[in-house]
Amino acid sequence: MVPGLNGNKMSASDPDSKVDLLDGRKAVQKKINKAFCEEGTVEGNGVLAFAESVLFPTSELRTGAPQFVLLRPEEYGGNMTYTSFEDLQRDYADKKVFPGDLKTSVAAAINELLDPIREHFESPEMQQLLLDAYPPPKAAPKKVKQSKKHNRRPDVVPADVTAPEVIEEKLAQAQI
């Protein structure tokens, strides 16, 4: 099972723990940037798990050989191409791969993978299909706050009037 991006299991209730097929480019980048990816830690690393479970296998299906390109600035050695997940994992554990570079590269690879799917779903037919399958939630009617009787401000009573007099006056008014 692929762990979620947050280091725990994927959860439909936590949208940041997974990447949806129709997430936009910025949403993918944001989710990957928020993902758990501690330097040198491979256990529970959702970004590495995504590379292992999705990116390496899909690249092998597309090109015939597994491949992952780690995007790095030239000043840090330039791009590196990995042909096995084990090599990437070893370099990450040895801190030869920086978490920021891994996140940037995984997000770029995910977006490259999802671009054709997003394009396909831009057609009016697919948009209608999405609306039919996942209708927008109906706005819940706003609750009108009811005033409570016990919450009303008491009538102002003159200082020279005592409580028994007020009670007698109220009783007299109620009988009219």
Fraction of helical residues: 40-55%
Global geometry:
elongated
Percent range for β-strand residues: under 5%
Uncertain ranges: none
Label the structural class: mainly alpha
The chain-level mean pLDDT equals 85
The radius of gyration is: 31 Å
Major sheet characteristics:
2 strands, antiparallel
The number of helices is 6
Number of E-type strands? 2
- The order of strands across the largest sheet is 1-2
Q: Give, in order, the helices and strands.
A: HHEEHHHH
Distance between the termini: 78 Å
Question: Can you offer a commentary on this structure?
Answer:
With 176 residues, the chain is mainly alpha-helical. Helix content is 47%, strand content 3%. The protein has 6 helices and 2 strands; from the N terminus they run H-H-E-E-H-H-H-H. It has a two-stranded antiparallel ribbon. Helix 1 packs antiparallel against helix 4 and helix 2 packs across helix 4 (99-120). The termini are far apart. The model has no long low-confidence stretch (mean pLDDT 85).
Features:
two-stranded antiparallel ribbon; 6 helices; 2 strands; 47% helix
Map the helices and strands.
Blueprint: H1 25-34, H2 46-63, E1 68-70, E2 80-82, H3 85-93, H4 99-120, H5 124-133, H6 163-175
Antiparallel strand pairs: 1-2
Helix pairs in contact: 1-4, 2-4
